Amino acid sequence: MTSHPAIDDLSSFWMPFTANRQFKAAPRLIDSAKGMYYKATDGRDILDGSAGLWCVNAGHCRDEIVAAIQKQVATLDFAPTFQMGHPLAFEAASKVAALMPEGLDRIFFTNSGSESVDTALKIALAYHRARGEGQRTRLIGRERGYHGVGFGGISVGGIAPNRKAFSGALLPGVDHLPHTHAPEHNAFSKGQPAWGAHLADELERLVALHDASTIAAVIVEPVAGSTGVLVPPQGYLQKLREICTKHGILLIFDEVITGFGRLGTATAAEYFGVTPDLMTLAKAINNASIPMGAVAVHRKVHDAVVNAGAENAIELFHGYTYSAHPVASAATIATLDLYARERLFERAASKAARFEAAAHALRDAPFVKDIRNLGMVAGIELESRPGAPGARAYETFVKCFEAGVLVRITADILAFSPPLIVEDDQIDQIFSTVRKVLGTVA
Ligand SMILES: Cc1ncc(COP(=O)(O)O)c(C=O)c1O
To answer: Which of 324, 341, 358 is the last residue of a domain?
Structure first.
């Protein structure tokens, strides 16, 4: 146990998405960070192979972002954005809009990915209602999708444990596309797998079942992250887009992970050349320095809602006390300027081949049954220990942490998404550490 004075008692903090008793019996604690590294409370440097939770794209504690936050909190700590505003909110929105695909330039601010998802779903319903199609209320998600933890997000999400305890309270009128994971066809694909575009045709089946006139929106992660890095088959997203357009269904891309450079472009939409009608964002929007999220909304969707009623009527009864919080806005402006100045998205693109090669070099490591990657994201799937799903990856995660590398795990999948400032030798260190550790796990 540590001697840090503030953490003599670990009992009060009910930790999120954590096996609390297991953790508190053997805690892993970090108390500072800089660049590519965390520092553990026992003084060890931990190389950040996951950008925290896929969010610290510029590396930790960047001076420009820290300075912007410090200045802002001392200048205007808080101001409402309901029926009034502050300049940084508008500036941050313009800067986010400038990075979006053509047309998605109306920005609604939230404080997290979960809030962005629920906001996007509500905007989709409001859009159809404003156009006189209020019966379009059905939402379509996808198996294995992760869309945060709000009731909307878990309803359209497809990760069974996240839904199970709340199953009686999920949104009605939700259906799911099948996931795209098909290792029997696509194991060890580099980049987008060749097999599986036809899985998008399942949307036609759902349209035939429910009728297009009842369906408001389809939401997918362009690259599914939290479920363990599922890269869309070639042509799949294009097909989804075509089917949505054909039936007047809004397409929402959940880019909470892929937004802001993860694939080497500002958005996955840009990477794939597929433009959704709404896009959810959070995490790297301000390098995760202050809670912040956003929904980028196509102008046609925004205008349909905002121009629908009388000029003095509130158009969308939705918003958060902290929507466009001044400090989060200042951090966003500083972060997006930093990304541009350092050409970090281009840097990610230039590192992707090296990253791919380093990940796939583990093909012959113990227990590895699949490796998949795109841009600066990779997943390595392990064979599960008989009778103990998840245990092998958990042991790998703990041993990597002890060996000075942070990786992310979900079930028996290791996920990699380092800050985009990662150097070649650090890429090598991440994967060579994992290889070594895999040689020691049971
Ligand atoms: C695709 C996606 N959507 C939504 C969320 C939820 O974001 P948050 O944890 O900020 O609520 C996440 C978080 O990992 C995510 O990956």
So the answer is: 341
Q: Which of 95, 54, 48 lies closest to 334, judged by CA? A: 95
Q: Are residues 324 and 370 in the same domain?
A: no
Pocket test for ligand 1, best of 257, 290, 292, 409 (most atoms within 8 A of CB): 257
Cβ distance 217 to 298 under 8 Å?
no
DSSP run (H or E) holding 353: helix 344-360
Pocket test for ligand 1, best of 121, 144, 226 (most atoms within 8 A of CB): 226
Total count of domains within the chain: 2
CATH at residue 248: 3.40.640.10
Radius of gyration over every alpha carbon of the chain, rounded to an integer in angstroms: 22
Tell me, yes or no, whether 394 and 335 share the same domain: no
| Residue 125 sits in the same domain as residue 222 | yes
Q: Do 398 and 430 fall into the same domain?
A: yes
Integer angstrom CA distances of residue 149 from 21, 57, 170, 193, 365? 22, 23, 11, 29, 34
Q: Of the candidates 52, 59, 213, 78, which has an alpha carbon nearest to the alpha carbon of residue 138?
A: 213
- Domain end point (choices 276, 307, 341): 341
List Cα–Cα distances, 34 to 132, 285, 423, in angstroms: 52, 19, 14
Q: Which atom of ligand 1 is nearest to the CA of 255?
A: 1
Q: Do 89 and 39 belong to one domain?
A: no
Q: Which amino acid is at 92?
A: A
Atom of ligand 1 nearest to the CA of 145: 1
Q: Which residues lie below 8 Å from residue 124, measured CB to CB, with a gap of 6+?
A: 139, 216, 217, 250, 252, 277, 278, 301
pLDDT tens, residue order, the chain (442 aa)? 445 555 679 999 999 999 999 999 999 999 999 999 999 999 999 999 999 999 999 999 999 999 999 999 999 999 999 999 999 999 999 999 999 999 999 999 999 999 999 999 999 999 999 999 999 999 999 999 999 999 999 999 999 999 999 999 999 999 999 999 999 999 999 999 999 999 999 999 999 999 999 999 999 999 999 999 999 999 999 999 999 999 999 999 999 999 999 999 999 999 999 999 999 999 999 999 999 999 999 999 999 999 999 999 999 999 999 999 999 999 999 999 999 999 999 999 999 999 999 999 999 999 999 999 999 999 999 999 999 999 999 999 999 999 999 999 999 999 999 999 999 999 999 999 999 999 999 9
The answer to whether residues 156 and 212 belong to one domain is yes
Residues with CB under 6 A from ligand 1: 112-114, 117, 146-148, 221, 225-226, 254, 256-257, 282
